[in-house]
Fold this sequence. Notes:
It holds the Pfam family HNH_2. GO terms for molecular function: endonuclease activity. The chain is built from 12 helices and 10 strands. By secondary structure, it is α+β, with helices and mostly antiparallel strands. It folds into 2 domains: 3-145, no CATH class; 169-286, no CATH class. Strands 1-4-2-3 form a 4-stranded antiparallel sheet. β5 (189-190) and β6 (193-194) form a beta hairpin. α2 packs across α3 and α2 runs antiparallel to α7.
Amino acid sequence: MDWLERAAKLRQWSRNGVRAPHKPLLLLYALGRFQVDAEDELPYSAVEADLKRLLAEYGPPRETTPAYPFHHLVSDEVWEVRTDHGVGSPGTGVRELRASRATGRLAPDLRLALRREPSLLGRMARVLLDLHFPPSLHEDLCDAVGLELELAETAALAAPERRQRDRRMREMVLTAYEYHCAFCGYDGMIGTAPVGLEAAHVRWWAFDGPDDVDNGLCLCSLHHKLFDKGVLGIGDGHRILVSQGFVGRSKAAREHVIALAGRPLIGPQPGARSIAAAHRSWHTSQVFRGSPRPAVA
């Protein structure tokens, strides 16, 4: 198994589409640190705070501990842990990791491979990003972990069972919503081409979300980003949810986000399939953050 396959096949707890991006986030973080200092060892005390922040922002909306990926990523042979007693993790206990002054870093063979082939770092990162996060979050996530990447193709992995995206989805979704943002109605064009309009997956493609109209929304760039970050969601009756955790004091924030609470979606046009309940339910449980605000009067 090569390094791209190992990145693609991290052992993760998974059940019924529940997100568990703990290991991918830690590995992305470690790749970012390696890019800065290839010899750096990462104390658990430092990783704990950074990974906790990453999990809060890019993980599912439930409590978790960075100790689990710090310990369990060792089993994927891409990560090693050392303590005062030598190589090996003391387990997933936070106290034990702190008391033993545990440190982690990329496995020796992986560090050697990255030195021999520098482009491998970017390709591994692209695999992790593509398999676990929607494209709208890739740039922000790279910034958050300190990664500077050249865009790299992941098609080289070419596993025979790997799903292929349907390139027709964008056009099908934008047509179904008549080239309007389903949240705000934005319909910008430059010439005859739509600009700032995107096809968003409700259930993420990385988590078995199909490239179908009933799993898609036409959204402007702003609302696509907020939808993928869990600020916005879709509730019963296809009405817009706005997280109570969102804070925006400006007039623009009130008008473009807070005022959406309780509004019905715009579209799809008659005859087009509306969002499937199963996909809405997945997004609400796995992406949307906190409780929804009451509808704006």
